[in-house]
Each structure stands twice: as structure tokens, then as C-alpha cells.
Amino acid sequence: MSFLYSWRIHSRSLYEDCFARLHHCPAKLDRLLISIHIPKTAGTSFRMILRCALGQKILFDYGRSSPMTSSCIQKYIHAVSQPDASALQKQCRHQHIQCIHGHFLAQRYLEIFPIADYITWLRDPVQRVISQYYYQKQSLDPNNEINTAVYHGQMGIREFANLEGNQNLQSLYLSGMALEDFAFIGLCEEFELGIRAVYKMMNINCDVPRIKKSNRTRIKPFHIDSETIASIRQANQEDMALYESGKRYFHSIIEDLHLSTKKNSF
């Protein structure tokens, strides 16, 4: 069975197109949006769209060590033994924050912002694991032993996929919440249709950006044998079930919003 390296949206062209379109039609949200970016599920591209739609009214939480994490998130979430909920709530009101987006488990903000709309994107679990492996194969983090081993070719994809920390990651991120608790569940494989749905839910009255898919890696297209595919699938049974439920929920949202499933032509 052959798999090409996972597609990635042209970041620069997407950002420029988003800014041109959304600058004149900003989003109008009734409640705070909590956007969970599960690794390798098009969350970076979605972050750009949110940034263009919301401007300075968005905070980022990519963990204590990430320079992308907003200062007030660092101060009230990561730099304290217990999250300072009241201080963060006050800061969000003061800055008119409309969204928090990043790599965090769904439960992190449930008690701090009990009245909020949660959204996330899912991806075929086998493709997500493959994408994460080849992403680490290109990006060296000397402080991460697993990444270093992958980067230097000392760990194959099957060994990588069988590590507990790489299994059922999507289920882990969404643990504590049912899919029905989410205002929106998108599918990486139907990104454009999902963005149309998000626009409608966020009251954004303009066309979706031009979404071009590309192979980000310089590594040549590769082949993954069927046994490895089966092994990854077996190691991610929870995510497989979640993804199937997510697909049904996504299409129910599309139906409720009366959106056509036909792709836009540019």
C-alpha cells in the first residue's frame, strides 16, 4: 500500500489570501472559542485563518516552552502551580479575547471557561501517525530523544508508531468531552468544506481562501507496506473509532448548516 507524504496547505499563499478576504469582514462571535490543535491535523493552517479573522483577539497556548504561547497564558497557566482562572478571565475580558487556540487537552479550559464553544479537527489516524513521523524526520529537536532518533534514522516508523505516547493521540486530546459537546468537529481530509462551515458559524460573510495542497517535505514519495499500515491501525483503535464517529458528526453539521458538498472552483 502506497502513501505519499501528507499534504500541507501553502502557508504563505493561504495567509495572504485570508488577510485580503477577512480584513474587511471580521468574525462575530457570541461566545469564546476554544480551538484544540491536535498535532498534524491542519491546525497550523487553521491557526492562520483564525488569526486573520480575529486579529489581536486570539490567544495561543502551545505549552510552557513554546515562544508562540501568549504571555498571559504563560503567566496564568504555565508559570503557576495552579491555573489562575480569575486572572485569565479578567485578562480575556480586558483584551476582548474571542479565541484560545493551541496544543492542549480539552480539559484544560473546561473549568476556567465553562461557557465556551469548543472546536477541533480530526484526521485519519494512520495518516496522522505517518505525517508526524516524517515531520520529526525533518525537524531536529536535540532535547527530544525520540525526535533525535527519528531524525538520524535510528528509529523506523513501526517502532515510532508503537510507542505509547504516539498512540490514540486524538482521543487523548479530546478526553473528558463527548463529540456532541463540540460546536464543531472538522476533518483534515475535507478542510475546505470545514472552513466554509466555520465561516458560517462565525458569521464571516466572505469566500473561503484559496486552499492549495502541497507536499511540504523534500523527502521523495515513500511506500509503507501493508503490515505497517495494519500495525498502526491496530495500535490506534480508539482513534479509529473516534475518527469514524467524527466523520458522522462532521457531516451532520454540514447538513444542519445546509452547505453544499461541492467544491468551490477558483
Which structural class fits the helix and strand makeup? alpha/beta
Strand order of the largest sheet: 4-5-3-6-7
Give the H and E element order: EEHEHEHHEEHHHHEHEEHH
- Radius of gyration over C-alpha positions, nearest whole angstrom: 19 Å
Q: Can you tell me the CATH architecture? A: 3-Layer(aba) Sandwich
List low-confidence stretches. 1-7, 214-221
CATH class descriptor: Alpha Beta
Secondary structure tally, helices: 11
What is the helix fraction of residues, given as a range? 40-55%
What does this entry show, briefly?
This protein has helices at residues 11-22, 43-54, 71-78, 85-95, 125-138, 145-151, 157-161, 169-174, 191-201, 226-235, 237-256; strands at residues 2-3, 7-9, 33-36, 58-61, 99-102, 117-122, 184-187, 213-215, 222-223. With 266 residues, the protein is α/β, with parallel strands linked by helices. It has one domain (2-256): Rossmann fold (3-Layer(aba) Sandwich), CATH 3.40.50.
Search tags:
single chain, 266 residues, alpha/beta, Rossmann fold, 5-stranded parallel β-sheet, 11 helices, globular
Write structural notes for this entry:
The chain is an alpha/beta fold and 266 residues long. It has one domain: Rossmann fold (3-Layer(aba) Sandwich), CATH 3.40.50. The protein is 44% helix and 12% strand. The chain contains 11 helices and 9 strands. It has helices spanning 11-22, 43-54, 71-78, 85-95, 125-138, 145-151, 157-161, 169-174, 191-201, 226-235, 237-256; strands at 2-3, 7-9, 33-36, 58-61, 99-102, 117-122, 184-187, 213-215, 222-223. A 5-stranded parallel beta sheet has the order 4-5-3-6-7, with helices on both faces. Helix 1 (11-22) runs parallel beside helix 2 (43-54) and helix 5 crosses helix 6 (145-151). The two termini are 32 Å apart. Mean pLDDT is 86; it is low at 1-7 and 214-221.
